Amino acid sequence: MQILIIEDEVRAANQLQNLLRALDFDYELLGIIDTVEESTGWFQRNQNPDLVFMDIQLADGLSFEIFQKVQLQCPIIFTTAFDQYAIRAFKVNSVDYLLKPIQQEDLQQALHKFQRSKPNVTLNPETLHNFLASMQSTEQREGILVKEGDGFAQLRISDLLYAYSEDSITFGITQHKRVIIDETMDELCPTLDSNQFFRINRGQVVSKTAIQKIAKYFNHRLILTVAHSRDQEFIVSRPKTNDFKSWLNR
């Protein structure tokens, strides 16, 4: 049994392998990949494995983007820390999904489902197309809950210039102030309008209107000048550079 693990957290990938061994699951690991870009390249160069374990939130975006670039004909078990993604993944017609931290009993049930269903369970192209279309047409949120004194307030999305993570805290910047957003970056970014906001790296997301200048940076990356930057550097990670350029051309 050949499997591929697509996961950007080393600890989570190791835990999954430990659980598989504990269940005496006989498999050959083809590799562990942590980005959308590398996953796309792997599938373009290799035959489909027997089974893929795929995290939904990867280092350079959502794993659903892989399906827009390559056609997969293999069963997939999605893994995610967020229920909202788990529901979406299940609708893509995967074998199953597992919520993190993965429990041995849940993994065992997913493997039993896979073994009963194979080789008939693969991603249905029509289902996937409809799913991606529904994601792109989903109405975007208008406000963000932020901390204010001992309570909370609502920040309008239209006022947000950029957000970043520091010491496990998510900060949002407007023209007039810095606020603490009551969400992680992984929770916040997928809910923002992808036409207006781009997650340039793991810890920063910027609005198109806040970008003042774009320059080349070493190692094929880009560096941005952003309004009200508070002395921060805004560097577009290498895996995201091409997608960032395409985003700017929309």
Q: Brief overview, please?
A:
The protein has 250 residues and is α+β, with helices and mostly antiparallel strands. The protein has 7 helices and 17 strands.
Relevant terms:
250 residues, alpha+beta, Rossmann fold, OB fold (Dihydrolipoamide Acetyltransferase, E2P), 2 domains, seven-stranded antiparallel beta sheet, five-stranded parallel beta sheet, 7 helices, 17 strands, 32% strand, globular
Could you explain how this protein is built, in words?
The protein has 250 residues and is α+β, with helices and mostly antiparallel strands. The protein has 2 domains: 2-137, Rossmann fold; 143-248, OB fold (Dihydrolipoamide Acetyltransferase, E2P) (Beta Barrel). The protein is built from 7 helices and 17 strands. It has helices spanning 10-22, 36-45, 83-91, 104-117, 125-137, 185-188, 241-248, and strands at residues 2-6, 28-33, 51-55, 57-58, 61-62, 76-80, 96-99, 143-148, 151-156, 162-166, 169-173, 178-181, 197-201, 204-207, 211-217, 221-226, 234-236. It is globular. Pfam families: LytTR, Response_reg. Residues 144-250 form the HTH LytTR-type domain. The modification 4-aspartylphosphate is found at residue 55. Residues 2-115 form the Response regulatory domain.
What general outline do the C-alpha atoms trace?
globular
**Radius of gyration, CA atoms, in whole angstroms:** 19 Å
List the strand order in the largest sheet.
9-8-12-11-10-14-13
CATH superfamily of the largest domain: Response regulator
Q: How big a fraction of the residues is strand?
A: 25-35%
Low-confidence stretches: none
Tally the beta strands.
17
Largest sheet entry: 7 strands, antiparallel
Helix-strand sequence: EHEHEEEEHEHHEEEEEHEEEEEH
> In DSSP terms, counting alpha (H) and pi (I) runs of 4 or more, how many helices?
7
Estimated helix fraction: 25-40%
CATH architectural arrangement of the largest domain: 3-Layer(aba) Sandwich
Task: Give the distance, in angstroms, between the N- and C-terminal Cα atoms.
Answer: 43 Å
From the helix content, strand content and strand pairing, which structural class follows?
alpha+beta
The chain-level mean pLDDT equals 85
- CATH topology value of the largest domain: Rossmann fold
CATH classification, class level of the largest domain: Alpha Beta
Number of domains: 2
